[in-house]
Amino acid sequence: MKVNKKLVKTEDEQIEDYINRYGWTMKQTGTGLRYMIYKEGNGPKAETGKVAVIHFTVSLLNGDTCYTSESDGYKEFLIGKGGVESGLEEGILLLKKGDRAKFIIPSHLAFGLTGDMNKIPAKATLVYDIKLLKLN
């Protein structure tokens, strides 16, 4: 238990350092997700049961880019049904169609202890840059 708390504290400090380095003003949810809507859209608000289509870039705190919609295609998922990182789903529910936002997703809301077995390492904090393109 103490080890987990220490890991969370260390990750939290790394996230705060990253935010300060870029001079961002971010809000934090109760789960630890940080978010910043930097361009407001004018569409409907995202809600459970809708299909979200997003333009995205996923990177690590060290700046390495893992995935982008340019190379991997837009991400499309049914909100509330899982299938994506819980932090991404939580963040999408804060947006309206057309919003552009940055999310910093702690590892426990991303891929956790294992990573994604591809480009995202174990215990990785993810930085998402997102545009919510569609809600169907």
CATH topology: Chitinase A, domain 3
What portion of residues is helical?
Answer: 10-25%
**Major beta-sheet overview:** 7 strands, antiparallel
Strand content: 25-35%
Q: What is the succession of H and E elements? A: HEEEEHEHEE
- Mean pLDDT over the full residue set: 94
Shape verdict: globular
Please tell me the CATH architecture by its name.
Answer: Roll
Structure write-up:
It is a single chain. It is built from three helices and seven strands; from the N terminus they run αββββαβαββ. Strands 1, 2, 3, 4, 5, 6 and 7 form a seven-stranded antiparallel β-sheet that branches. It has one domain (2-135): Chitinase A, domain 3 (Roll). The chain is an alpha+beta fold and 136 residues long. Helices cover 24% and strands 31% of the residues. It is globular and about 40 Å long.
Provide a compact summary of the structure:
This protein is α+β, with helices and mostly antiparallel strands. Helices cover about 25% and strands about 30% of the residues.
What would the keywords be for this entry?
136 residues; alpha+beta; Chitinase A, domain 3; 7-stranded antiparallel sheet; 3 helices; 24% helix
